[in-house]
Amino acid sequence: MNRLSVKLPGLELKNPVMPASGCFGFGKEYANFYDLSKLGAIMIKATTLETRFGNPTPRVAETASGMLNAIGLQNPGLESVMENELPWLEQFDVPIIANVAGTETADYVEVAKTISTAPNVKALELNISCPNVKCGGITFGTDPVQACDLTAAVKEVSKVPVYVKLSPNVTDIKEIAKAVEEGGADGLTMINTLIGMRLDHKTGRPIIANGTGGLSGPAVKPVAIRMVYEVSQMVNIPIIGMGGISEADDVIDFLSAGASAVAVGTANFVDPFVCPNIIEELPAKLDDLGIGQLSELVGRSHRL
Amino acid sequence: MIIQEQMKVVRHAEIAEHIFELTLAGKLVGEISSPGQFVHVRVSETMEPLLRRPISIASIDKESSQMTIIYRAEGRGTKLLSGKLSGETVNVLGPLGNGFPVEETAAGETAVLIGGGIGVPPLYELSKQLTAKGVKCIHILGFQTDAVCFYEEQFKQLGDTYIATVDGSRGTQGFVTDVMAQLHIDFATYYSCGPMPMLKAVQAAYSEKKGFLSFEQRMGCGIGACFACVCHTTEQTGQDYVKVCSDGPVFPAGVVSI
Ligand SMILES: Cc1cc2nc3c(=O)[nH]c(=O)nc-3n(C[C@H](O)[C@H](O)[C@H](O)COP(=O)(O)OP(=O)(O)OC[C@H]3O[C@@H](n4cnc5c(N)ncnc54)[C@H](O)[C@@H]3O)c2cc1C
Ligand SMILES: Cc1cc2nc3c(=O)[nH]c(=O)nc-3n(C[C@H](O)[C@H](O)[C@H](O)COP(=O)(O)O)c2cc1C
Ligand code: FES
Minimal Cα distance from B52: which residue of A? Predict the structure, then answer.
């Protein structure tokens, strides 16, 4: 048996590594570098009902061991994703996790209903945590009641399992996690970016046109690990962990904290080969730890 | 094809105040298709500073598989880069984007190349290729001050070269547009790279002419995947937006809303 394989609701993963939403587009650019079938799965860019342009530029700023982004969910819209992006991805032997975003419940439901019928979409990732849009998104992700209701509404129409992407920008992430589990979520993905700001030394004004942006990259890993650690002990649904992963050791940490699989975001910008490189390095890491099957690592930290 | 490569540092020197000329060797050079393309340079082997730095390709020598980039060591990343020594390697992703169309100016015609500051470098390879095919090139280069001027001699060898400095310490005092206003030249095409206000002024001054502008935008991936570098387009185009990294950085005048 493949020692890296992971089985999750709707997902038979060859390995636990997948690119995170928004950091991999719809795969085309990275397909020039390697065979996307090597990946455990692909989380595609957030899809909304209508085409979105997103925020004004500058949209990114570098920070210590990290970056801020305020892309604002730019995407070609549901119809184009269904007609162009998803069919193109069918040439690869890789499950797609569709990141679904919206302004109100009806948008989420509409997108979920349609996108979950695509043959290669094996799960949805409900984005209730984007910090960069004015309405929707994070407002659902910071209120347990709204988060639960939205999850339930999407569950009702989705043909595939629904994972909910949690925001770290809350006082108690466990409360939101519990709420979406109650709403019927099949799994959790976490964390989305942390709201931050960087000022220009000369002008004193924010570098990002939107003012604030979402912090990602190695800088956020300790926060993500802590949250996965806490949430995984509170819920009975699996977690796909992310936040600052750039090498195989980071993956070991996330699994130990309680995640069953992981996503790699920002590191793709630094090294386009980061995902296949991590996948290649994992078996040796397991050997070093004297572990046969990767899944044995999950939640090691809980057994204190 | 875009590749990621540990390129070897052949030469690295400060050619003007904080301006570095870095010659790199590797297979990547064989993939470069037009002047004005850029590379995404990793300035550290670690994840700090995190992001790659986009830098234009200033000249290419396919025979020796070498290319030169010219950059200003200003911030954290470029300062680190400036410490690289000959014999060391630099992680480079490229070539990226679409460069200046040399084919848009015919042999015997005249092209004006207008550059500002660190927008000057890609015009050098462009001028080499244009002059090689028999285009007459006129260069108008703007800098802040004499101390940061570079490549005047190299450009002079290819064609008439006019310098403008903001403080008047070399050439005409003022901006490239001041030089443009004084020169009454007839030309077929213009090519420009530099800060946004300069591009705007150049496009406005030469609104009747065929021109190509190279844009800058803060980047994440550099390859078209993250939507960091988008620009709005004008009504002249069918699209709502373009990505500077993969659709550009060079666009025909009038495409990008500025
Ligand atoms: C297509 C393109 C071609 C370029 N060609 C050249 C060139 O040939 N020579 C040269 O000196 N410079 C060039 N630049 C500008 C160069 O990328 C920035 O000066 C450089 O990234 C600044 O990095 P730093 O470490 O000095 O600054 P920092 O302040 O440490 O940079 C922080 C972050 O902001 C980004 N950033 C800061 N300023 C700019 C800018 N003006 N444009 C884009 N990103 C920026 C950096 O890439 C980095 O991610 C080019 C930019 C683009 C987009
Ligand atoms: C440029 C950029 C765009 C992103 N876009 C999305 C998005 O569309 N939907 C989403 O759920 N998360 C998005 N994210 C968040 C990432 O998927 C991920 O949760 C976060 O960046 C933490 O992981 P990392 O540190 O590995 O990047 C984006 C992140 C970045 C850096
Ligand atoms: S920098 Fe990522 S799309 Fe241009």
Answer: A270
